[in-house]
Design brief:
24 helices, 687 residues, alpha+beta, 5-stranded antiparallel beta sheet, 10 strands, 5-stranded mixed beta sheet
């Protein structure tokens, strides 16, 4: 009997259950898709580095899934409150007919089980289908071969999804039973007659609170977005707390001012149904200040997470393309045995490392360059800027002003040979000229400033004047990102061989096909690792060395980009769904409570299209308020993110922001549309 009544109730309340069921299905599908990545990628033909990155990705997703499950659990509990509120009169009728509270709780339990099983089944079906698409996305990100693709279903992901959502539904069942046990018949019967009281706050208090909150938020914005270089961890935490509190009081004050402001604009307020619309809206905002604050902050996190994730991915891929133009790179130096500077390395020869094993570094390479860079102990950054040091420290932020490193020096002939290998422009210098190249974290602007002032450089005792008034933006050493903090290019005869620092080798393999390049890399890597192992085990002094390849750098960039992208999508998607669902359920609940008001409007002769316009405006403003402030928060947050992640982020935000905007419109806007249509249907029930 209970099962039959439950099915009947669900059929009759399809309008009420639509948003709830839709949200559950989305949650289940997304949860399955991301947790099935490991199974879905098991058939991909990838190298060991990429396989390791996929393992890190799946581990990260598993960890984040716990947090996602908590968010979805809270959302489901919130949604169940809406459904129970809509059915208070129904529960009162059951009690009047003699049904015990225990039987009503059992009825709710049965309904929850039916909806839970249905949402799990539909969500998993959709998730299994979408996970096949996700396989193609992962394969595209890792540039993997999908020839061995086969339709797969992840048993572990299904198990995990059922367990997590089973726990959520169990919590909902317990809560529903507890609420029913505390209900009184008179309360349930009068629930539909009670309406939200419109609290008319003191307008002057609201104005003062708004101004104070706006000022506090402005301080937080400035500290994080425009003064980040002086931001300590304590001040950063304070700015976050102030921003959250200010957000709450902005919504609180706006809720109190909204109706007053509109009432003072009599021409607008008394036009059409505007008086009814804004009184309804004021009531909603007044009763959802805390929810608005949470939703605004969640939208802020979503926008920042998605935009930054895609920007980092694009920047890393672009960085490898621009800053690693060769196939193979080795850097090597030996300790200078300087007790005062144990980190100083000078000289050393890569050929000597290979010679011990009767090997040669050149065998696998068709074109290459073997060169030293140099240092002059008497030529540091502060030596270069001379009497302009105080001005430099005053005008540059603390990050740059901490550096007084020994400047890197490179011969003109080596620089030109390197640029030829990199496919970049070469330069010419007179015997008394120098040039500077850099591309790392603001150093280009610093050196350009000194070059414009025609600052002379005294290198190995010889005074040189700048050839150009602008720093050359290029890398010297291959890397994932721009890593050249400054290198002085000088004529060959201006260099002392006693100043040799690191020995460098860069080259391209002889092979041109994918298989040949892979074999050449495997051989070159094995020879280096074997040679450096035996060399360092025999030598008594310290060494400093580094070896990297374009393939492993590309794989690292792709892997890190994929991890950031998937985690950003996972968190962002769930947050968007949560925000949209919370607002939708609140709006539908308010519409249901306002049924008598809409009935009265119709009795007074108000046209249906005017009522529809009023519902649309209420829903639109209700959804728009938290989004507008979230966008403002996000702009400042991304400014801070760009500063904090400047080493990773070299591209622009335009495409990632547009993609994020499209996702927000699709999901958040989709919930708005469903809410508007649902509210419109609910308010017609008593037509």
């Amino acid at each position: 009997m209970l099962f039959k009544i439950s099915l009947s109730n669900i059929r009759k309340s399809l309008k009420d259950y639509a948003i709830y069921f839709f949200t559950l299905v989305l949650g289940v599908a997304v949860f399955y898709v991301f947790n099935a990545i490991e199974t879905q990628t098991s058939f991909l033909k990838v190298n060991e580095d990429q396989r390791e990155m996929i393992k890190i990705l799946t581990t990260s997703i598993s960890a984040v899934s716990v947090f996602i499950a908590v968010v979805l659990g809270l959302l489901i509990v919130y949604a169940s409150r809406f459904l129970m509120k809509r059915r208070n009169k129904e529960f009162a009728l059951y009690m009047m007919l003699g049904m015990s509270k225990w039987r009503i709780s059992a009825l709710l339990l049965c309904e929850t089980v039916i909806i839970g099983i249905g949402s799990l089944f539909v969500g998993l079906l959709i998730g299994v289908g979408l996970s096949q698409v996700m396989s193609a996305v992962v394969a595209n990100l890792f540039e993997a071969d999908m020839n061995a693709y086969k339709f797969t279903v992840s048993g572990s992901a299904i198990t995990k999804t059922i367990i997590y959502f089973g726990i959520m539904y169990a919590v909902v069942m317990l809560r529903s039973g507890f609420v029913i046990s505390k209900c009184r018949l008179i309360t349930l019967m009068n629930s539909g007659r009670r309406s939200e009281k419109i609290t008319m706050k003191n307008p002057w208090v609201c104005v003062i609170v708004f101004l104070i909150s706006a000022a506090a938020l402005g301080w937080a914005y400035y500290s994080v977005g425009w003064n980040a270089e002086h931001l300590s961890l304590r001040k950063f935490g304070l700015a976050i707390i102030v921003g959250c509190v200010a957000t709450f009081f902005i919504f609180w004050s706006v809720a109190g001012m909204l109706l007053r402001v509109m009432m003072s604009a009599k021409g607008i307020y008394h036009h059409g149904l505007n008086s009814f619309t804004f009184r309804q809206l004021s009531s909603k905002v007044n009763t959802t200040v805390a929810s608005m604050t949470v939703i605004c902050l969640m939208l802020f996190v979503t926008i920042c997470t998605l935009s930054t994730a895609f920007t980092i991915r694009n920047s890393m891929n672009q960085g490898v393309e621009e800053n690693y133009p060769v196939d193979f790179y080795v850097q090597f130096a030996e300790s200078a045995d300087d007790p005062e500077n144990p980190w100083l390395y000078k000289g050393g020869n890569i050929d000597d490392v290979y010679a011990q094993q009767n090997e040669s570094i050149y065998d696998e390479f068709g074109e290459y360059l073997h060169f030293h860079d140099y240092i002059d102990d008497d030529f540091t950054l502060y030596d270069f800027i001379g009497d302009k040091r105080d001005e430099f420290l005053e005008n540059n932020n603390e990050f740059y002003s901490r550096f007084n490193f020994t400047e890197t020096i490179i011969k003109l002939s080596d620089y030109n040979a390197l640029m030829k290998l990199y496919g970049k422009e070469q330069i010419e210098l007179a015997d008394d000229e120098y040039a500077v190249c850099a591309n790392a974290l603001g150093f280009t602007d610093i050196y350009t400033g000194f070059l414009k002032d025609k600052t002379e450089a005294v290198i190995y005792g010889k005074s040189l004047k700048p050839k150009f008034t602008k720093c050359i933006e290029t890398s010297i050493y291959p890397g994932m990102q721009a890593n050249n903090a400054g290198a002085f290019i000088v004529p060959d005869n201006a260099v002392s061989e006693n100043g040799q620092c690191f020995d460098n080798f860069v080259g391209n393999y002889k092979a041109t096909d994918k298989k040949g390049i892979a074999e050449a890399e495997k051989t070159a890597r094995a020879k280096w690792e074997n040679a450096i192992h035996w060399y360092t085990s025999d030598t008594k002094g310290g060494t400093n060395y580094n070896m990297s390849t374009r393939i492993e750098t590309v794989n690292s960039a792709i892997g890190i980009g994929a991890i950031v992208t998937f985690l950003g999508l996972y968190i962002g998607f769930i947050f968007l769904v949560s925000c949209g669902a919370i607002l939708a359920l609140k709006e539908l609940s308010e519409s249901a409570d306002s049924l008598p008001r809409y009935t009265m409007l119709r009795k007074l002769g108000v046209e249906e299209k005017e009522i529809t316009k009023s519902i649309f405006r209420q829903s639109g403003i209700f959804f728009l308020l938290p989004l507008l402030l979230a966008c403002l928060h996000a702009y400042v947050g991304m400014r801070f993110g760009r500063f904090g992640l400047e080493l990773l982020i070299t591209g622009d935000y335009i495409k990632p922001v547009l993609f994020t905007a499209a996702l927000v419109v699709l999901i958040y806007g989709g919930y708005f549309l469903l809410t508007f249509l649902g509210s419109k249907a609910v308010t017609r029930e008593q037509k």
